[in-house]
Automatic annotation (TrEMBL):
It holds the Pfam family FA_desaturase. Keywords: Fatty acid biosynthesis, Fatty acid metabolism, Lipid biosynthesis, Lipid metabolism, Membrane, Oxidoreductase, Transmembrane, Transmembrane helix. This is Cytochrome b5 heme-binding domain-containing protein. SUPFAM superfamilies: Cytochrome b5-like heme/steroid binding domain (SSF55856). It comes from Esox lucius. The lineage of its organism: Eukaryota, Metazoa, Chordata, Craniata, Vertebrata.
């Protein structure tokens, strides 16, 4: 995440970890005057003004350098006090890349920021219930999901969020380019549909796209483990937050090969059509280390979205009424 070998802004060299037994950062190979740190020591440096991270068994003090990180402070700070070896320097601070960095982790994965519309997982519903928070009738969220989630995510929320992000980050060049898209769109379709017809057509296409996007992305994430930071290792964290949908010509086509969501998270830059080739290798690795590798049917995955929402809603209601 820090470039695979970046030093701090002050040029402080990386501190390699030696073979300190269980709990040590790893075995150092550089020798010299490099120091050795345990994981407990590294984890103490996970605050805003004091951040260390580990890349390839070397400890880096990135407290000052995070300000110059090309992906922004937020995404690299997710790994303060942790092993960041698996994170690519090309993962910018866009919401989807934060999702890949910390999938299904509250306060770090923006995709589980539901704006109080839904409660997810097992812990959040109970926390809301104990605090008597009732922004929505969460015990019915598995029903109103159909009215809020699939139809409105892209046509409404994403459109607002995209514009807001460009303005708040002062990405004026991006904003100008995005405006040219709408200009070109109206220039192409206005002669056929008129002004209001163009708006209706654009909204309808986004409406259809939004349904596909929500079902395809959430079938592999929403029913999985959603919780606060647990500091799991990279592989375990990705496998706990994702599952695959069984391979078939239709499922591959319908999902754009995102039915191999596990492989997509482990190899995000790999061309999607290659996921089916590496899936057996990943599955064998998971079996070797006793890490669950879940594969579902398409229908079962869709049903699990609703059942997981209902389960979370019931947990909220029980905590709201009785705790």
């Amino acid at each position: 995440m820090g470039g695979g070998g970046q030093q701090t802004e002050s040029g402080e060299p990386a501190k390699s970890a030696g073979d300190g037994g269980p709990g040590a950062v790893g075995s150092g190979r550089g020798g010299g005057n490099l120091s050795v740190f345990t994981w407990e020591e590294v984890q103490k440096h996970s605050h805003k003004g004091d951040q260390w991270l580990v890349i390839d068994r070397k400890v880096y003090n990135v407290t000052q350098w995070v300000k110059r990180h090309p992906g922004g402070i937020r995404v690299i700070s997710h790994y303060a006090g942790e092993d960041a070896t698996g994170a690519s320097a090309n993962w910018w601070n866009h919401r989807h890349f934060q999702h890949h960095a910390k999938p299904n982790v509250f306060c770090k994965d923006p995709d589980v920021n539901m704006l109080h519309l839904f409660v997810l997982g097992d812990s959040q519903p109970v926390e809301y219930g104990i605090k008597k928070l009732k922004y929505m009738p969460y015990n019915h969220q598995h029903k109103y999901f159909f009215l809020i989630g699939p139809p409105l995510l892209i046509p409404l929320y994403f459109q607002i969020e995209i514009m807001r992000t460009m303005v708040t980050r002062r990405d004026w060049v991006d904003l100008a380019w995005s405006m040219t898209f709408y200009l070109r769109y109206f220039c192409c379709y206005y002669p056929f549909f008129g002004f209001f017809g163009c708006i209706v057509f654009f909204t309808f296409v986004r409406f259809l796209e939004s349904h596909w996007f929500v079902w395809v992305t959430q079938m592999s994430h929403l029913p999985m483990d959603i919780d606060h930071e647990k500091h799991h290792d990279w592989l375990t964290m990705q496998l706990n937050a994702t599952c695959n949908i069984e391979q078939s010509p239709f499922n591959d086509w319908f999902s754009g090969h995102l039915n191999f969501q596990i492989e997509h998270h482990l190899f995000p830059t790999m061309p999607r059509h290659n996921y089916q080739a590496v899936a057996p290798l990943v599955q064998a690795l998971c079996e070797k280390h006793h890490i669950p590798y879940q594969v579902k049917t398409l229908q079962g995955a869709f049903a699990d979205i609703i059942s997981s929402l209902k389960k979370s809603g019931d947990l909220w209601l029980d905590a709201y009424l009785h705790k």
